[in-house]
Amino acid sequence: MSGSKRSGDVGVGRSPVLRWHFPSSAAAVGRMRQELDTALSRLDASGDSHDAVLLVANELAANAVEHGDGEVDVRATFSDGSVRIAVSDASPDPPRIRPPSLSALRGRGLRVIDGLATRWSWSADSTGKTVWAEVPTDGGLGGR
Predict the structure, then answer these.
(1) What's the CATH number where 102 sits?
(2) Which of 67, 68, 59, 69 is nearest to 135 (CA)?
(3) Which residues lie below 8 Å from residue 106, measured CB to CB, with a gap of 6+?
(4) Phi first, then psi: what are they for 28, rounded to 5°?
(5) Are 58 and 34 in contact (CB under 8 A)?
(6) pLDDT tens digit string along 25-59?
(7) Cβ-contact 128, 92 below 8 angstroms
(8) What's the confidence (pLDDT) of residue 42?
(9) Residue 79 phi/psi, 5° resolution?
(10) Can you tell me the distance from the alpha carbon of 55 to that of 26, in angstroms, rounded to the nearest whole number?
């Protein structure tokens, strides 16, 4: 990814972890999503779970770009039965689900995450916050 750093391994026989660090930009979110898509394909994620993981990762990263400060860190941890996506930014402001509005063009990201993830939450630290979500898969991802 140009302008970002990625590390990690999607090897078989362990719980792989992928990490991205990138400037706050929509283009960087798109590149992260493409690389995660490739990793999910290599791990044989099924269609629905594959798409759900990509959507949750995209929404979390896009929220960090739109509402956070500074650079963004993304971590995808693969295990049997789920993928945990954690996104960190420099803003201490908590994420919040907005009231639904039929006329709004934006503001549904956390509702989507809430619907697709088995659980999600956030935590603050001295450098900002991390928002994470666990997305179920059809089994077999990571640790095979």
Answers:
(1) 3.30.565.10
(2) 59
(3) none
(4) -65, -35
(5) no
(6) 889 999 999 999 998 888 877 788 999 999 999 99
(7) yes
(8) 85
(9) -145, 170
(10) 14
Model pLDDT for residues 69-117, shown as the tens digit of each residue: 889 999 999 988 899 999 999 999 999 887 777 776 666 789 989 999 9
**Count of structural domains within the chain:** 1
Helix (H) or strand (E) run with residue 74 in it: strand 72-79
Q: Is residue 143 part of a domain?
A: no
State the helix-helix crossing angle for 109-116 and 47-67, rounded to 10 degrees.
150
Amino acid at position 111, single letter: R
Encoded tokens for 103 = 């006329």
pTM as predicted:
0.82
Position 1 in a domain: no
Beta bridge partners of 21: 5, 73
Alpha helices in 1-135 (DSSP H): 26-42, 47-67, 109-116
Range of the domain at 125: 16-136
6: in domain:
no
Residue 142 in any domain: the answer is: no
